[in-house]
Task: inverse folding
């Protein structure tokens, strides 16, 4: 990137100083003959802009409400609306596996191994990892030894995952000295 800036500076100087030979406009080199112009980089700084602190750390908190088998469905096949988990109804419906109940749930994102995972069923009652549920970090799913009771309606999962970082902008501050 700095090379492109230096090439642009050279081009502008060569156009503006047409009476000076091109071989006498140099970047960080001592001229062999005078008159000459030398361009020297005195430093640079790159700043990210448009990123929050959480995104800079690349860890994002996620809360998912997963519907449990046995939820009432309309004749059209759509689940009744209500609650925050309604946005996940298609994913939940596609994961149903048997009449005995679902024991495995795919998460939207793969959780971080070093992150905290909290599973509550029903919401407000925490479950213990390794006893009440198991986490597959490779597949990005949670598995229960037995299907949760359908009367509890929802499983609440809180976890951290590595988010895709979209840089909205970079700001480059470059300082150059032009010696004649």
Result:
């Amino acid at each position: 990137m700095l090379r492109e800036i230096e090439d642009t500076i050279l081009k502008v100087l060569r156009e503006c100083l047409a009476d000076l030979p091109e071989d006498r406009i140099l970047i960080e080199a001592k001229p062999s003959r005078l008159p000459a112009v030398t361009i020297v980089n005195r430093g640079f700084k790159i700043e990210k802009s448009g990123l929050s602190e959480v995104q800079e750390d690349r860890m994002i908190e996620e809360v998912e409400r997963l519907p449990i088998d046995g939820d009432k469905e309309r004749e059209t096949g759509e689940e009744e609306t209500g609650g925050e988990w309604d946005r996940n109804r298609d994913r939940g419906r596609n994961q149903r596996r048997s009449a005995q109940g679902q024991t495995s749930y795919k998460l939207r994102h793969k959780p971080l191994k070093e992150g905290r995972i909290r599973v509550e069923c029903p919401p407000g009652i925490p479950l213990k990892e390794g006893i009440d549920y198991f986490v597959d970090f490779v597949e990005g799913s949670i598995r229960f030894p037995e299907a949760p009771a359908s009367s509890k309606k929802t499983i609440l999962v809180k976890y951290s995952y590595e988010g895709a970082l979209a840089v909205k902008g970079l700001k480059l501050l470059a300082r150059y000295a032009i010696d004649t």
